[in-house]
Write a structure and sequence with these properties.
mainly alpha, 61% helix, elongated
């Protein structure tokens, strides 16, 4: 039984060498690299580390409402949320 490779490293290299210039060059023939998306992702990751995992204020308000008996359950709202409506 003979197993032939489909694609593989050579295939990827062929794509890179044939199409890299088409992908990376603008009409004026100059290379362009855009790192703005990478910088935005780094900024968002940094900011996300400063957000607390638990919204303590909301949790405390809900605990207080449950203890006081003022927390009301809306079964229709729950059913709609479960059913995706």
């Amino acid at each position: 039984m003979e197993i032939k490779k489909i694609g593989g490293y050579g295939y990827i290299q062929g794509i890179n060498s044939k199409n890299a210039e088409k992908i990376n060059r603008k009409k004026n023939g100059k290379d362009k690299v855009d790192f703005s998306a990478t910088l935005e992702i780094k900024k968002l990751l940094y900011e996300s580390k400063n957000i607390p995992e638990v919204r303590e204020k909301l949790v405390n308000e809900l605990k207080q409402a449950i203890e006081n008996g003022t927390f009301k359950i809306d079964p229709e709202k729950i059913a709609k949320a479960i059913l995706g409506g």
